What we know:
By secondary structure, this protein is mainly α. It is built from 16 helices and no strands.
Amino acid sequence: MFKYILKRIGISLLILLGVSFILYVLLRCMPTDFVELKVLNLTQTSNTGVTDELIAKMYETYGLDGNIVEGYFNWLTNVAHFDFGTSFISQRPVLDEVFNADRLGTSFFVAAIATVFEFLIAIPLGITAATHQYSVRDYVVTVFVLIGISLPSFFFGQMLKDIFANKLGWFPVSGMKDAGITYANAGEALLDYLRHMFLPILTVVVLSIGGRMRMTRTNMLEVLNSDYIRTARAKGLKEGKVIYKHAFRNTMIPVVTGLAGLIPSLFSGAMITESVFDLTGIGSYALNAMQQGDIPVIMTYNMFLAFLSVTGVLLADLMYGIVDPRVKLA
């Protein structure tokens, strides 16, 4: 087991190096960069033009004057010394920007609550659809899930906001708290915070349960047609025991596979959803950094997610041996 983990860690480091190089190349090949956007802004707000010397100096200041390979190795060398650079936009250390407690806390809260409800809703729906295959219940669940999968997050989020916030007035339109309101106690502040978070969480839950439900249904159907399930039923076991003790456990491996992407999703933030509801999460911040070409922030943010991804895959592989004793790690 120890040798297997060391081997996987070594492979993960190579993967992270490859991801960092590809990501840096893609960022440097974007149609516009931070300097171009800044020059355009200066041109629009100033009556005087921007000289070529000033532009060249700006490229040198932001480390964008060399070729891509040279820029990548400069970035990699700095990271090896735990120097992740300074944000182009805020001129603050990147680590303070990316690992901001308020931003990460907001995104983590939305993702964690949404994930809990996703599992609580998707897995029972998948089981009931599989155990009632081709019934009205199966068709209703499948149609509901397909609608959730097909709707874009910006459209569905805007639709919920328009119905429940603008028209019915049940929930706040956007933001994380009402401006200018003084709360009498912590409970009142928490209740207002939950009211602001309800629609974003609902958006994420509805749009995410489809994949989990379909995976559960498909694997449950495969297991229910197995010989040992027919044998269990022939022995007179109760249907509930057959389904939830014998069949469901053998559908857990695909569910565990899905857990590999769970860890990065808790910290990545829902970019579009956060933008629609004007939440100050890490997702909306990263989207703004991407749009403005803030390379140090984008690199640190995405490498953080890449690290969480390879860690999630490793943990999922280790969990296989717990879920299925037939799996041996070597």
